[in-house]
Amino acid sequence: MLTLKQSTELCSLLADSSRQRLLLLLEVHALSATELTEITGLAQSRVSTHLSRLKAAGLVQAEKSEGSAVYSARPLHGPAAGLWQSLRSQLDDAQTGADQERAEQVLRARSKGQTWAESVAGRMERHYSPGRTWEATAHALIGVIQLGAVLDLASGDGVFAELIAPRCQQLTCVEISDTVLAAARRRLAGHLNIHLQQGDIHALPFEAARFDTVFALHALAYSAEPAAVIAEAHRVLKPNGTLIVAALAAHPHVETVRAYDHRNQGIKAEALAAMLNSAGFEVALCAVTSQETRPPYFDVITAVARR
Length: 307
Fold this sequence. Notes:
The structure is a single chain. By secondary structure, the protein is an alpha/beta fold. The chain has two domains: 4-126, Orthogonal Bundle (Arc Repressor Mutant, subunit A); 134-306, Rossmann fold (3-Layer(aba) Sandwich), CATH 3.40.50. Helices cover 42% and strands 23% of the residues. Strand 7 (211-217), helix 11 (226-236) and strand 8 (237-248) form a beta-alpha-beta unit.
């Protein structure tokens, strides 16, 4: 018998189309996470998370094969299996047929001796490869730029500052919280070209035309008046200076962002571009450039604007 909590968790587990697709595939084939990613088109991180939950519920099992895990559906037993069997008998969807066809193609390719790169060609961004991360790419790109005098708005505990400091002539970090600034001082103690400043991003404590580059990476999320932040960035930039913004696109997920103390629900790319133009910037880029890989899959806007 199930408690109400167990029943709710079980219904939540199977109330996901991606997990149902994986179960249907694994009833027919034994497949690796990489192969499931290729078949379904889901991000590998999402596939791995779904497999972990299905395995914990006793619906999926994993066996080692040539050093990697191969997954398959377990024989039906227990509450989870009973509910799945009931749902399974009623399923009739074109997507399941397409998945099975794609699985057959993947299994045929398995025996052709493809290299890893060949097997994921066209979908590499969905697959893990040792050392091939966005962090590693960022470090490589940072190495070829010179940023001059830089201002980092709402700089937090200095993670980004630590990354760019070697490429800055001088780096100033503005953060409103004493506690967060203390953590930043500990992290950045070895960098002599960094100055930490407590301050409000709506009223920056700096003279006009001081900085070559201003970063506002998710700073706008903590503002009820993002136009004021952009206007201040324009004021403190030198002529031809650059403002770089990363911001959440407008979204409905109020409860999710409340836990992170956000002051707004993101911004539309068109509205951000209008704010930049109104402040006197020349906008080189302002568009959604990525989507997060975990629920609720926030879109992220990148903006580059010059004074």
